[in-house]
Specification:
44% of the residues lie in helices and 15% in strands. The chain contains 13 helices and 12 strands. The strands form 2 sheets. An 8-stranded mixed beta sheet has the order 1-8-7-6-5-2-3-4, with helices on both faces. The protein has a 4-stranded antiparallel beta sheet with strand order 9-10-12-11. It is globular, with a radius of gyration of 22 Å. The termini are far apart. Belongs to the class-I pyridoxal-phosphate-dependent aminotransferase family.
Amino acid sequence: MVTQLLLATSIPPEQVIQAIRDSVELHTSRGYAPSRGHQEAREAVAEYSAHQGDISAEDVILSSGCSHAIELVITVLAECGQNILVPKPGFMIYKTLAEGLGIEIRYYRLLPDKQWKVDLHDLENQINDDTAAIVVINPSNPCGSVYNKEHLSEILDIASRNQVPIIADEIYEHFVFSGNEFTAISSLSKDVPVLTCGGLTKRFLVPGWRMGWVIIHDRHNILGREVRQGLANLSTRILGPSTLIQRALPAILKYTPQSFFDDVLLFIENQAKLAYAELLRAPGLRPIMPQGAMYMMIEIKISLFSEFKNDLQFVESMVSEQSVFCLPGRCFEYPNFMRIVLTVPEDALREACQRIVIFCKEHIDMDEKCNEIKSNIIQMTNETEVICNH
C-alpha cells in the first residue's frame, strides 16, 4: 500500500526531501548558476552515469527537465531543412520541437510482434543525405520495450555505416522489469557519437522539479568543439535549471536508497502483470506486455468494432461510457493502438481494466468475433497437425 501511494502521489524518499531542505538553507541556491550548471552538480551526474561510459563534468549540460535536454540536442545537431529519425510509435515531443525549427521528422517502424524492436531495414531506408540524427528511446515511451545489447549494437552498426549520430532518450534508464537488463547505448558505441538525455523525473518521481541533463559521448571527437560550444551557448537561453535543485542534486543522486527504486519497480511490474491479465479478457484487444518503463500499448482490432472508424473514436466513446481514458495510438503516429499508464493505485487500475473489458464486450461485432475465434481455432489445429506430423 505504501508503494502504491508513492506512485499515486509522487512522494520521493526522505533522503531526497532532506536534500532539498538542506539546499534551501544555502545562500548559493538562491542566485544564478553557470548556464551549463554548477560544477558539483555536473560532477555528480557524471559519477551517477558512469555506466554510460567514461564521463567527466565537462561532458554534462544540465537542463530544465529531459524535454529541455531533447530540445537542446535537436537544435544543436540539426538545421532547418534537415531531418531526424524518430521511432513509430514514439514520444510525440520530438515532432513538436523539430517542426517548430523547420526540421523534418522521418519515422522508422517498431515491430509489435517482436517486443517493439526496431525494424532495422526500415531504419536504414529512412536515412538520406539530410539526416542529422537517429533518436533511440530505450526503455520506450510508449511501448515499454527494453533493448538488449545485441539489438542496440545492430542499431549502432547502421548509424556507423551511415555516419549519423544518435540521440539517446534514456529518461527511463534502469526502469526495467525482472528478466531484462538496461544497457546504455553509449557504452557499446565504438565510433558513433551519442548525446544522451536523462534526468530525475521518472526514476526519482519528481517531474515538477524539472531537472534533466545532456551527456556528450564523443570518444573520437567527431562532433568537435562546435557541438559542445553550441550546447553551452543554447543553455544560456534560460540561464540553466533551478539552482535550488542543482545544489541538492549531488545528495539526491548519492543517497537515494536502492530499496526505493526496487519498491517502485516491483509495484509497476506487478501493475503491468495485472493489466495484461485483465485485458487478455477483452474481446478485440491485444495487450503487449512491457519490459520496463511505465506504460503498456494495446492493439485495438478496429475491424471487430464496426461502429468506430478509428482508435480516436474508440477511446472517446470509452471515456464517455466508462470514464476510462487511454491515449489513442495516433498520438504516437501509430493508429489502432492505445496506451495505458501503470502508475495509478492497484484498485484503480483493476477497475479501469474491468471497465475496458465491459466496453469491448458491449461494442464488439459478434459475427466478426465468431470469425476471429474460428480463425484462431483453425490456426491452432494447423499448428498441432504440423507438430504431430513431425
